[in-house]
């Protein structure tokens, strides 16, 4: 059974997809599902089991362990038992650190697996049944509802709408509304509504599964590891050269051969830097303790060295450069007397006991909350993607009934039948704010039996953090270029970038990465485009991975911030992966640095501290 990629499924209508998957709206038979499960395998992330013992002993193999092992054997040969036990203890210490790092890397995959659904409702033999999510196959008809983790990549076929939290995918906090023919991704969460969809891909072929595959593939050899190997090799060859010269000179002088061999062995043991990896590890561990007092948790010790050499930092916009807090901007008044009247009617069209970011922002704009007590709510109609507005039916203090509404500006304008100069003015304002990247809300009211009155337009935006511009300037002084990365559109990205003096060369990533091969193996042209960009818009997590790969290919030591499940591959691939405050378990497991407080200044301070620590390592 051949699966249909989510990109192909997106281009097809439901009938074409049904035909391609050899299924129908009635679902599969149990027998057919069993057959497909054998062909495609379970709907789960593949696991590679390697014995813990094998993994541990692998850390006794390689240039640095060989160097220490030779020293231990030579100490035993010359009967320096104390030296032997000390060197052996150092060998175990270094192996233990490496083993712990590998376990942490595997935790990134475990955290990804924890995000997947456990159960699912499918249509089999014409009946709705609940099954293990791992038993889902391509062609299954699945029902999703509020609170569900979507069990596979699917195309929605029936129902009105669902609101889906894709924060793990894009990092953006507002849920995305989906309707029939839209795509839902495995691992995302249904926040509102109920719909039916057809499964196009399962397991490792899902968008989520490919992320797990990237996590497995991701990871570059650290500059610290390269430096230790290089120094170790240099010292070993130097000592062997000196021992050979001394041995020949003493032999020509006629010294006793046995005495010479013992002398040569002692000299070789003394010249091998057995303590170097341990001393550097301890230095970095002490540095990690210092950083922890600055609200930064170091999860990979070698990351301190990477941080010291950092020259490009790719930073998320939302929450790191900006406050991740919607704020009311300038209002445009039509029938409303002033800003507060406009906000009052918008607030009356909002739910006050909700976590909806837009409603909370609108209500917070009210200066006098006592005005709410003048109105009694009779009925509230929540937002849905079909109507694209909320509505409240109320009575005022005199007992008169009125309706208030807020929503997509164009929808509210159509509802109020805005015409002539007012229509012209409203369209101009909406376009002006859209160019700045602001969200706009239309607000209206009507009395019982009357017509809708267009009160005005509210604007919403996510303001930059107060310290972001100064921190970016400080980073630049320290030789670090900050590039902004966001899932938002180019207009929003350009507006924020210009406010922070990052530059205006904002690139849409799908114009750079045409396909998966561009992401995994970027060309020199792609490297140059990414180096030249001030920031990137409409970014999905796999693009972050590609950005890191391209910058590393251009010989940059690259940092990347992230918070979502699907950021894990980019965080693991980066020389310096940073899980921002509030990141998911998967992002934290893949990162080198975990922030416990938001903002760019925390990262730049951590880099400055890492450079001091690296100076101490250099001194050794």
From TrEMBL:
Domain Cation-transporting P-type ATPase N-terminal: 8-80
Subcellular location: Membrane
GO-annotated molecular function: ATP binding; ATP hydrolysis activity; metal ion binding; P-type proton-exporting transporter activity
One Gene Ontology term, aspect cellular component: membrane
InterPro entries: ATPase_P-typ_cation-transptr_N, ATPase_P-typ_cyto_dom_N, ATPase_P-typ_P_site, ATPase_P-typ_TM_dom_sf, ATPase_P-typ_transduc_dom_A_sf, ATPase_P-type_domA, HAD-like_sf, HAD_sf
Sequence intervals crossing the membrane: 56-78, 84-103, 234-252, 258-291
Major place of residence: membrane
Enzyme class: hydrolase
SUPFAM superfamilies to which the protein is assigned, alphabetical: Calcium ATPase, transduction domain A, Calcium ATPase, transmembrane domain M, HAD-like
Family: Belongs to the cation transport ATPase (P-type) (TC 3.A.3) family. Type IIIA subfamily.
The protein's name in its UniProt record: Lead, cadmium, zinc and mercury transporting ATPase Copper-translocating P-type ATPase
Organism: hydrothermal vent metagenome
